[in-house]
C-alpha cells in the first residue's frame, strides 16, 4: 500500500538544477574547462565534490589540484550558487508541484526530501515549503552519493516505511538509478531516453499528476 512520497529537490520541486549548472559552468570556465552538453545530466544529483570531479574529468585535470585547492574550488562554486538562490520565492516552485504536495497531504501520505544538496533547507525555506517537509535527509550523514541507494533508503527510514510503500521522484539518471537500487518505485521527470530506468516517466512537472503516478504504481 502506498504510504509515502520521496522527492529529490533540485530539478523536481524547483529548478535550482539550472542554477547549479550555471555556477559550475562559470567555475569550469575559470579553470579553462568548457563543459559539453551531456554535463547537464551528468552533474545532476551528484554531491558537490563528486560534481567537481566530473568537471575535472571533462577537462583532463584529475590529480592537478591539492585537497585544499579542491575545497577552495568547491567553495567558490557554492558561493556563486548561494548568491543565485537568495532571490528564490514560492513562485519558483515548479508548475504543478504545489498542487501535488497539497493533494498528497490530503491523502495522508508522508513526505520526505532526498536531496544531495547541503543547501536544501535554505531552498525549502525560500520556497516556503518547510511545513510540507519535516523529514529531510541530512546529506552530511551519508557515506555514498547517488547513484548509491543510501539517500533513498535513509528517506524511507525517516518515514518509517518499506521500499514498496513509497514512490520516489527524480530528474537525474543517477537519482533514478539510486531509487531503483533502493527497490522503490521511480518516477522520472525529464527526457525518457536519459531516465529510461524509471518505472514511470513524464517530460516535466506540469505533466505530472499524482493520480497517474499512483495508478502506475498500483499497476
Ligand atoms: P550542494 P538534488 C543535488 O541536489 C544537485 O542536483 C547537484 O547538482 C548538486 O551538486 C548537489 O545537490 C549538491 O548540492 O552543492 O548545494 O550541496 O538533485 O539531489 O536535490
Ligand atoms: Mg535533482
From TrEMBL:
InterPro entries per UniProt: B-phosphoglucomutase_hydrolase, Beta-PGM, HAD-like_sf, HAD-like_SPP, HAD-SF_hydro_IA, HAD_sf, PGP-like_dom2
SUPFAM superfamilies: HAD-like (SSF56784)
Keywords: Isomerase
Name recorded for this polypeptide: Beta-phosphoglucomutase
Protein family per UniProt: Belongs to the HAD-like hydrolase superfamily. CbbY/CbbZ/Gph/YieH family.
Origin species: Lacticaseibacillus pabuli
Record EC number: 5.4.2.6
GO molecular function, one term: beta-phosphoglucomutase activity
Amino acid at each position: 500500500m502506498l504510504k509515502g512520497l520521496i522527492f529529490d529537490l533540485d530539478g523536481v520541486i524547483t529548478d535550482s538544477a539550472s542554477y547549479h549548472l550555471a555556477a559550475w559552468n562559470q567555475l569550469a570556465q575559470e579553470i579553462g574547462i568548457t563543459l559539453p552538453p551531456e554535463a547537464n545530466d551528468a552533474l545532476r544529483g551528484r554531491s558537490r565534490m563528486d560534481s567537481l570531479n566530473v568537471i575535472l574529468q571533462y577537462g583532463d585535470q584529475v590529480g592537478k589540484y591539492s585537497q585544499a585547492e579542491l575545497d577552495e574550488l568547491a567553495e567558490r562554486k557554492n558561493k556563486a550558487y548561494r548568491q543565485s538562490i537568495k532571490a528564490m520565492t514560492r513562485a519558483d516552485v515548479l508548475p504543478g508541484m504545489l498542487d501535488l504536495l497539497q493533494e498528497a497531504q490530503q491523502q495522508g501520505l508522508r513526505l520526505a526530501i532526498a536531496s544531495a544538496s547541503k543547501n536544501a533547507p535554505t531552498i525549502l525555506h525560500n520556497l516556503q515549503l518547510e511545513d510540507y517537509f519535516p523529514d529531510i535527509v541530512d546529506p552530511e550523514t551519508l557515506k555514498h552519493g547517488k547513484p548509491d541507494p543510501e539517500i533513498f533508503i535513509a528517506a524511507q527510514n525517516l518515514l518509517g516505511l518499506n521500499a514498496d510503500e513509497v514512490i520516489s521522484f527524480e530528474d537525474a539518471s543517477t537519482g533514478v538509478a539510486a531509487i531503483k537500487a533502493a527497490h522503490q518505485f521511480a518516477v522520472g521527470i525529464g527526457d525518457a531516453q536519459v531516465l529510461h530506468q524509471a518505472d514511470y516517466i513524464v517530460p516535466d512537472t506540469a505533466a505530472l499528476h499524482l493520480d497517474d503516478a499512483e495508478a502506475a504504481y498500483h499497476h
